[in-house]
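The material for today's practical consists of a large collection of protein records. Getting from the letters to the tokens is the skill we practise here. To make this concrete, we reproduce a full record directly below:
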Amino acid sequence: GSNPGHSLKGAGIFWSLLMIVSFLLQAADTVLKEVIFLDAAQRLKGGVDLFVVNSYGSAFQALFICLLLPFLSKLWGIPFSQLPIYLRDGAACFLNLGTLSSGCDGAPLLPLLFVLVNMGFNISLLHLLKISSAIVSSLASTFSVPISVYVFTLPLPYLGVASSLPTGFVAGAVILVMGLLIYSWTPTASPSSACSSSAN
């Protein structure tokens, strides 16, 4: 960004390492799901259902968020004793009820639409992971990032004034997309050709 405080030096080593660890956990999750799909294809006749894998992932995500609420509330700057008040106000905003309805435009339709789109996106990635590999699924997920950011720059309802993308982001998105296209267009060596080349 244009602000010098948003640099790697300004972020500090702790937050940089925390971001790296979070991506490592996400990568391990994708690889583990690929192993589950491959193992289920060998042991089970029809394989494992996508909705089962997605439901278990969502259930454990909700469980660990609940277990980490004391830590997360401190990280957010919310006293843990006041967390029920925030949850109550959040539920009222989600249902568009009470005095908070003035600041909750689009609820509950927009939050429900987000949930449906998020579920569809996750299940699509799981299907792609099931029929291909963890690398292809990760690349598809990476490709969706610049598209999502671009969509949010459009004059959509409830977003207010559309923001413009900085030059650095556009350049980074172009490099990212070009790298994905080069990777996808690069032919992979078949096992027979690899064996013949090693024999020569």
About this structure: The CA atoms of residues 37 and 49 lie 9 Å apart.
